[in-house]
Design brief:
alpha/beta; 6 helices
């Protein structure tokens, strides 16, 4: 079983980062978060990392002439902390091959909808506006397109008659915080096997 050294990429409040930090501390993930990297200096997730004594790194896109240069800087920060699994947790940028090729099959993402439905940055709101009765959460491997990589796990969330967009968000986030650590532990236990676009959990 591989002990995970997790690099978490964030852009916002970092609630999934916190769920992962807590799961590692409680022994539910055989590993540790070794660095948190944000695309925004205002992301509260950076403060969560600091409170947990985890290196918190802001990489400023504006200081890089190209997206390739920016992604290279992300890769360098991950490698400097000896990362062996890259976890996207509310990271609002598309990762390029500079990172993906450095961590083949070791970059995962979480999305607040049942992919391939409602891909993109506003999955919860898009599902709500469409009027679906069931939405959910997807954990998948990342590739060079948004929300397209092979799916590892999904969990459905029913939309109740009395739900509001706020209560639906709460329900989906609660599933995220439970499902993501579970999948990361599957990866630590080497139970996730990929064949092309198909994923099998042993």
């Amino acid at each position: 079983m591989a002990r995970l050294r997790i690099g978490v990429l964030i852009s916002g409040s970092g609630t999934n980062l916190q769920a992962i930090i807590d799961a590692c501390a409680e022994g539910r993930i055989d590993g540790q978060v070794v660095v948190a990297i944000s695309s925004l200096d205002s992301a509260y997730g950076l403060e969560r990392a600091r409170k947990a004594r985890i290196p918190a790194v802001f990489i400023d896109r504006a200081k890089h002439e190209t997206i390739k240069s920016y992604n290279h800087a992300v890769r360098v920060a991950l490698e400097e902390h000896d990362t062996n699994l890259v976890v996207m947790a509310g990271y609002m940028r598309l990762l390029g091959k500079e990172v993906l090729n450095a961590f083949p099959g070791k970059v995962v993402n979480i999305h607040p909808a049942l992919l391939p439905a409602f891909a993109g940055a506003s999955g919860i709101h898009d599902a709500w506006d469409y009027g679906v009765k069931v939405t959910g959460v997807t954990v998948h491997f990342a590739d060079e397109e948004f929300d397209r990589g092979p799916i590892i796990a999904q969990e459905a969330v029913a939309v109740a008659e009395d739900d509001t967009i706020e209560t639906l968000e709460e329900k989906i986030h609660a599933v995220e915080h439970r499902l993501y650590p579970k999948v990361l532990q599957w990866i630590a236990e080497e139970r996730v096997v990929v064949h092309g676009r198909k994923v099998r959990v042993l």
